[in-house]
Design brief:
Length: about 260
């Protein structure tokens, strides 16, 4: 199998929803919904993946489009939407090359997906594309993660499993990560296995080195400022409470003046 030039493909996409389980009560769902209500429609979900937010919001009557760099994810999102009788506008594009036919009152980048842009200048380029796609007075919102702080472990792993409903097979994701303080980036390796009757019948390894860029609160604010956003707000996790110095997950919003 030829590895695609995008991260989300194959077994990762096929079992994306199964391994995530019920996401309806995730905190970011309510946070971003409130941002849209404050800023207005239309809205754009960048990195929409399988559509966990986009489809929920569409079902509530919100005018929202979706973008993802993975054509496989876009296909899954479209299929999930069709199951609910919805037909969203979906686009296969990278964040730093965004070029869509209309502008938006609200742009969201959930799941800290901006941190997947690793080359120098790419994050700023992406924010400038978001800025250009916003209407005047529109809001851009995204969460960030500080992946490591002094004293934290530099390496770790975890395992996640789910049962495939059609035949009872076990779908297992074994994840490993390692942080490099010199580059401020994290390497990852995810091994996907489908196990039936004690035998591994499918397997796939997704390795990214590096995979994710860490941000401090100050670095995130500086990025927003460089892109031209004003009235920049930093919140604790997915609340509208002011950020705390100890927060390693925080959400940032900015307005296009």
């Amino acid at each position: 199998m030829t590895t695609p030039n995008y991260e989300y493909y194959g077994l990762m996409v096929r079992y994306w929803d199964l391994l995530r389980g019920d996401t309806s009560n995730w905190d970011d769902r309510f946070f971003f919904l409130n941002v849209i209500r404050k800023s207005g429609q239309p809205a754009l979900d960048i990195g929409c993946a399988a559509g966990r937010l986009l489809i929920d919001y569409l079902a509530q009557g919100i005018d929202i489009d979706g973008v993802d760099i993975s054509p496989e994810m876009i296909s899954l999102c479209r299929l999930n939407a069709e199951k609910k009788g919805l037909k969203p506008n979906l686009y296969v594009q990278g964040m730093n090359e965004l070029n869509l036919p209309r502008k938006y009152k609200t742009i969201l980048v959930p799941s800290s997906s901006l941190q997947l842009l690793l080359e120098p200048g790419q994050p700023l380029q992406a924010l400038k594309r978001f800025y250009d796609h916003l209407e005047t007075g529109g809001i851009f919102a995204t969460p960030f993660m500080t992946l490591w702080r002094e004293g934290d472990p530099l390496e770790g792993d975890f395992v996640r499993e789910a049962t495939r409903p059609e035949d009872g097979a076990t779908v297992r994701r074994t994840s490993w990560w390692r942080f490099n303080p010199k580059t401020n980036m994290e390497d990852t390796r995810d091994t996907y296995e489908v196990i039936r009757d004690g035998l591994v019948i499918e397997t796939e390894v997704h390795e990214q080195a590096p995979a994710t860029l860490s941000y401090t609160q100050a670095e995130a604010v500086a990025l927003f400022e460089q892109a031209g956003f004003k009235n920049i707000q930093v919140y604790s996790e997915f609340t509208f409470e002011p950020v705390k110095p100890a927060d390693t997950v925080f959400s940032v919003t900015g307005i296009k003046p």
